[in-house]
Every structure is written in structure tokens, then in C-alpha cells.
Amino acid sequence: MNKILKRLITLGMITIIGSSFIGCGRNTSINASNENNAKQDGKIVVEYWYGLGGKLGENMESIISDFNKSQDKYIVKGVAQEDYDTTFKNLQAAIAGNKTPALVLLESDKVKILSDKDLLSDLSKCTTNDSDYNDENYLESFMDIVKKEDKLIGFPAYGTTQLLYYDKKSFEDAGVNPEEIKTWMDLAKAATKLTKKDGDEVKFYGWEPMWGPDNLVDASLSNGGSLLSEDGKTVTINSDEWVEVWESFRKWIHDDKTMKIHSSGQGWEYWYATIDDVVKGKAAGYTGSSGDQGDLDFTKLGAMEQPAFKEGKEAKPVAEGRYFSVPAGVNEEQVQGAYEFIKYFTNPEVSAKWSIASGYISVNKLSADTEAFKDYISKNPQAAFPTS
Fold first, then answer.
1. Which of 39, 192, 364, 378 lies at a C-alpha separation of 20 to 30 Å from 281?
2. 352 contacts 362 by C-beta, under 8 angstroms
3. Domains in the chain: ranges and CATH
């Protein structure tokens, strides 16, 4: 994790913008989960919202099913959303309607927004009463995000960071050695060699960054940029370091046409369209999530960490957590049920299983010691990149 930064400094900025979408007043009197549907066959029902699709969604449903079979007190009912943003938007509507799920999977900035409005339950009551709980088993960088004074406003589910995925044969055919790519400038030169054109028409792109700000933020931080000044009073995204990065990507995409992005669409449509271009021989590589690994064939593809932007700079790709949170007002039985699922999902074996299947970072330090994880890493070295 020494090469990965937490996106702590963005939370305050995003919170200022995002909090405007939730009512100005504080509300701790939410009636979550319809009491008439709180039990089924004598078991306590925990409705759980998550914004995962494809194999990730299938893997989540598999773990939910395993949990339900592992005990006879709770039933977790997974409700898939289009993506993380949709989960949050739907949760806002549920909060306004006083009928929320018992458990949600959120990005860290959304957890902060809800916490500042006192709209999340405190899970420290559950951990305090759990004799098996050991705070030291979990990665501090993710746990610190959800510790607020003496409260625990959520719990890390897994971590994610952006990686570079490339088609081995395309690189070999173009004479590009991935081990020689030490900077984004190196990758840009490689993309020029990899791109195939017929006149002005591009037949094959050298690289496809992922749509959205994350790639650009990572590259800017890896060029020595920062989001805020050291005293936290000045936004610094108009500095030379940022301008150089964003202008470079603009040039590569729009002028040189050696790179391309897929944008818009429903849910994760743009994401899978980007992956498909590489898989179907339309591009040499792309920038994607560590969580893509479950969908990729590494007999054909390779993976690299994001590099520094240029020579003399340090690579600083961001690692972010995805968090389990329980809305305020959920009854105590459902809070405990939600916690039991969280505990199950983040235990060493299940967290390792999730990491192996998805490529996401396990939040439980002990997962790395499980036989399943050690065996997987020995056979799939690219899976070690997010935690190196």
C-alpha cells in the first residue's frame, strides 16, 4: 500500500457539493425498512442495496446466498442497483420517503455526506458487543474513513484502485516492452506505436483511459499535483502540474487520436464498452479498476500499476474504499443482522474469496495469510498489484 494514496483530501470538496442533494436539516427519525416486511418465515430480513453488475454482481449474490445458508436467524435480500451513484440517488429518495434498506454499499464521500447529516447508524455498538471483533485486523487506511469521534459510521467492504491492462500480443507485435513503461509519457509514446490508422480513420487505438475524473486525478497527483494547498484553504487544481496532465490527455485523445474514451450510457455500460475494445481487438490496452480482474483473461492480458506522469515524479495512484453503511432509524434487530453480514463478508476467508473473484483489495489483513489467497497469488501475480 506504500505506493497508494487515500482520497481523503477530496472528501471535503465532494461533501460540500453532494450535501446539497439531501435536505438541509438533520433527520434521525427515519423509519427504515417497512416493519411489515422485517421478518420472513420467522427470520429477520435485511434488505441490502449495492451497485455492482456483471460477474461482480454474481459474486456478491453468491456470498449473500452463502451467508443466508450459514445461519438461521437472518435473511439478507440483495437488491442490485445500476452503479454506486444510482445507489446513492435511490437511497436519497428512500430517506425522503422514510423507507430505507437496512444496508447499503457506498463510496466514501457518500458515507461522509450522510454522516454529516446524522443519517447513518452507529456500528460501534455492534463491534463493542462482539467478542470476536479485533479492530487491528483491518487496514487502518480504510477504517479511519468511517471512524467519527467515538462512532463507527460504516465498515469497509473492499478497496479499489486503477490499474493498466494491456494485450500482450499487441504489445509484442508492436515491439513495445511493458517493463519499459515507467511514466505516462512512456505510455503515450507506446500508444503512438500501437495505434493503427487508415488515412484519418483509426482502426486500432493504442490506449483507452477510463471515462470520468479518476484517471486524470491519479495522473495529476503522479505529476506532483495536489487538490488543496498545505493549509487546506486553496484549491490547486489549476496549477501547472494539473494543466500539463489534462492538456496531455486532451492532445492524445483529440489531436493525436492515439487514445479513446467511451462515455455515458446506463450504469456501467461505458466501462464494459472500454473493456470490450481490448478484448475484441480494437485497442491495445485500457485503464481500469482492480475489480476488473474477475472478467479478464490473463493468458492474453497483462497488468501494470499506474506510473508516474513523467520522469522525476512519483507514482501516486489513489486507493479508495467501498463501505457498508446502515441508514439511521433501522430497527435494532436489522442493525444487528446487517452487522452479522458485514462481519461475515469481511472475515479473512470470505474477504479473500471476494478478492480472488473480483481483484478488489481485501480490507482484512488476515486474508493474505489464507491458503486460498496465497495459492491464487502464486498462480496469478498480477493480482498482487493493488496491495503491493
1. 378
2. yes
3. 5-154+326-346 (3.40.190.10), 161-318 (3.40.190.10)
